[in-house]
Write a structure and sequence with these properties.
- The complex is a heterodimer of chains A (150) and B (280).
- Chain A contains ten helices and one strand.
- By secondary structure, chain A is mostly helical.
- Chain A folds into two domains: 85 residues, Protocatechuate 4,5-dioxygenase, Chain A (Orthogonal Bundle); 39 residues, no CATH class.
- The longest helix of chain A is centred in the middle third of the chain and has 10 residues.
- In chain A, 35% of the residues are buried.
- Chain B is an alpha/beta fold and 280 residues long.
- Chain B has a single domain, classed as LigB-like (Protocatechuate 4,5-dioxygenase, Chain B, 3-Layer(aba) Sandwich), CATH 3.40.830.
- In chain B, strands 6-3-7-2-8-1-10-9 form an eight-stranded mixed sheet, with helices on both faces.
- In chain B, helix 1 packs across helix 5 and helix 4 crosses helix 6.
- The longest helix of chain B is centred in the middle third of the chain and has 16 residues.
- The chains are: A mainly alpha (150), B alpha/beta (280).
């Protein structure tokens, strides 16, 4: 093995080198198992109610570590991710807190929710008309926009 | 003999379910996305499928990290949706097609794909929302279901190349099925989006265009990247393009005709797209 492997030839290295991104793999899955297991339990309404009734006791029941508990208690989404939380499961916890994915995005990017939504909408400016909108037929590049037929 | 009539691909963003529940289809925010579905429904009315083979990813309804299959093929007589924890309505159940499921499973294992088989499998919004969009206001779904779940949650993910190959093997199974059903293929999720990290909100219309431009005629172009590179290009949840690649594989090696495509940014945090392909 060469001592320095390009991320292009080593996909595992790329998991830790995409800006602003950490890909959820075995290392994180192991670190976050208890936290994610608790979040998975929130598919059940009774479990959501039990968490709301006594958050600390519910976290203890699932064997959360000190760092898991601290991140949950602080509603600190970046910390939850850092201790192995996976966003698909954390979304169920966020639902209990009344947070949607724009709220989560704002919390993680240091923006207000309005600023985060504006950033999402601004991406539309990057969309070429040949790509955006409704197109019919095999050659969208040459087809005129055909919204009026929708 | 069975006939593969074509493929329907769409984003499955949970917020779409909320918009349907509120009746927001004609609101300015939602209209450009929902305008993509009358053509889908028209195509379905003409294609008259009896069965849908659906490639999707579970978001923590049926599968947890205690046992996470890379590829899981449903073989149930019935599939239920259930509470996912964050407020979507519970959607209608699906009638399965166990005999076709087992034929797909047999064919895949013969082809040395070591899949997981599921006789009991809840299906989440990634499957229900595309059905709600295609067949709104029906009392029961007009097609039977064979669901195939792909791990997009926990790396290592299957590579795009492996996904295309699996889809191609599913396609061979469908074309060798002795029944006379008209079979459609579905791929759900995507396109580019990222929910977590400092890059949350990332979308990449350039990569989405690359995918849409090649899906019908050259899906192998989408397999040049590793799954990690797809995450870099499409965002951490944009890896759901794996479901599209697999579904495209099931349509066979011949170039397909793009019947329609719709692309709109943003729906929630997602660059949303809808596509119908049919055999040329």
């Amino acid at each position: 093995m060469p001592s320095q492997v390009s991320v292009r030839t080593d996909p595992r290295a790329l998991r830790r080198s995409i800006p602003g991104t950490v890909l959820f793999d075995g290392e994180l899955a192991e670190r976050g198992f208890a936290l994610n297991a608790m979040c998975y339990s929130f598919n059940d309404a009774e479990n959501r109610a039990a968490f709301v009734a006594d958050e600390e006791a519910y976290c203890r029941k699932f064997g959360l570590s000190e760092e898991h508990c601290a991140a949950v208690a602080a509603r600190d989404v970046p910390a939850m991710l850092a201790v192995g939380g996976n966003v698909y499961y954390l979304a169920k916890l966020a639902g209990i807190f009344g947070l949607n994915v724009q709220d989560l995005g704002a919390l993680q990017t240091g923006r207000s929710v309005a600023e985060f939504k504006a950033m999402l909408s601004a991406t539309r400016d990057l969309v070429d008309p040949a790509l955006g909108g409704l197109h019919f037929g095999p050659d969208p590049a040459s087809a005129a926009l055909q919204r009026e037929h929708a | 003999m069975a006939q593969v009539v074509g493929g329907y691909f769409t984003s499955h963003v949970p917020a779409i379910g909320g918009a349907i529940e509120r009746g927001d289809q004609q609101e300015a925010y939602w209209k450009p996305f929902f305008d993509g579905f009358p053509p889908v429904r028209q195509w379905l009315a003409e294609a008259r499928p009896d069965v849908a083979i659906v490639f999707y990813n579970d978001h923590g309804l049926n599968f947890f990290l205690d046992a996470m299959p890379t590829f899981a093929v449903g073989a149930a007589a019935r599939y239920d949706n259930a509470d996912e924890g964050w407020g979507l309505p519970v959607y209608k159940s699906f009638v399965g097609h166990p005999n076709l499921s087992w034929h797909v499973i047999e064919t895949l294992v013969e082809a040395e794909f070591d899949i997981t088989t599921c006789q009991n499998m809840k299906v989440d919004h990634a499957l229900s929302i595309p059905f709600e969009l295609a067949w709104p206001d029906v009392g029961a779904w007009p097609v039977k279901l064979v669901p195939i779940a792909i791990n997009t949650v926990q790396f290592p993910l299957p590579s795009p190349r492996r996904c295309l190959a699996l889809g191609q093997a599913v396609g061979r199974a469908l074309r060798s099925w002795k029944g006379d059903e008209r079979i459609m293929v579905m791929g759900t999720g995507g396109l580019s989006h990222q929910l977590e990290g400092a890059r949350a909100g990332f979308m990449n219309p350039e990569y989405d265009r690359f995918c849409l431009d090649n899906l019908a005629t050259d899906p192998a172009a989408l397999t040049a990247h590793s799954a990690e590179e797809v995450a870099e290009l499409a965002g951490t949840q944009g890896v759901e393009i794996l479901n599209w690649i697999t579904a495209r594989g099931a349509l066979g090696d011949a170039p397909q005709t793009m019947v329609m495509r719709n692309y709109h940014v943003p729906i929630s945090n997602t660059a949303a797209a809808t596509v119908v392909l049919e055999p040329a």
